Amino acid sequence: MIRVGCCGWAKAQAVYTAELDAVEVQQTFYEPPQLRTLERWRRTAPSDFVFTVKCFQLVTHERRSPTYRRLRRHLPDGVESGHFRDNEVVRAAWKETIEAARALRAPIVLVQTPARFEPTAQHLARLRAFAAWESGLGFKIAFEPRGPAWTGQLTDQLCRELGWLRAGDPFVLPPPDPEYQPVAYFRLHGRTGYRYTFSESDFQQIARWAKAYAHAWVFFNNQSMWNDAVRFRTLVTARKR
Integer distance in angstroms from the first to the last C-alpha of the chain? Predict the structure, then answer.
């Protein structure tokens, strides 16, 4: 099965859910919405529409990240956040992510790390400790590390150890082996950057990759993500007929 969506609401919810069958919620990364808002999204979406959730940035990104400009809350002075530190702020942020995932009945939570979170011994130890926090919560972690230090082989080994999915852009790193990871989680950022519009030949390649898996999630995260996602959805739907 192939599900297609965007990284974020690219249109009003009613328009979006009429065309696509999944969305990766981005608001949960910057600052999780109130639970009643998330519950309304779930209630008003079609029953077969699926949400995934991006982990709150206080878990993954440090305070110096430019993404914190969109954070409205005040953080305690002298308390570091991000990079999976084991402290009150990070654990509370992870709890908020869990609550958001449950409100949306999300089967997957995306955990994306910035390029400065390299696979050092300290960072790998933090990831292994974090994996113990999330065990038994009823959803899968899709892990997308950014930066050249994270190779496909290294990330695959870690994900197999922790029971996670390797997420990411298959045009950047070859997708994981379906024999070992039967679920794909593709995030398409644009082959030459955010302004890139995917071509028909790109779609054919994405479809070939996706159909090798028992279940594939294909999320577009470029400037033309709405048009690209609808075009790709039309392609894979037509192939089923």
Answer: 14
The range of the structural domain enclosing residue 206 comes to: 2-240
Per-residue pLDDT of the chain (241 residues; tens, 9 = 90+): 999 999 999 999 999 999 999 999 999 999 999 999 999 999 999 999 999 999 999 999 999 999 999 999 988 888 899 999 999 999 999 999 999 999 999 999 999 999 999 999 999 999 999 998 866 788 999 999 999 999 999 999 999 999 999 999 999 999 999 999 999 999 999 999 999 999 999 999 999 999 999 999 999 999 999 999 999 999 998 755 4
Give residue 57's identity as a one-letter amino acid code: Q
What is the rounded CA–CA span in Å between residue 158 and residue 165? 10
Count how many domains the chain has: 1
C-beta of residue 139 within 8 angstroms of C-beta of residue 172: no
Q: Going by C-beta distance under 8 Å and a sequence separation of 6 or more, which residues neighbour residue 71?
A: 30, 31, 57, 58
Q: What are phi and psi of 124, to 5 degrees?
A: -65, -40
Element (H, E) at 226: helix 225-240
Which CATH number does the domain housing residue 118 bear?
3.20.20.410
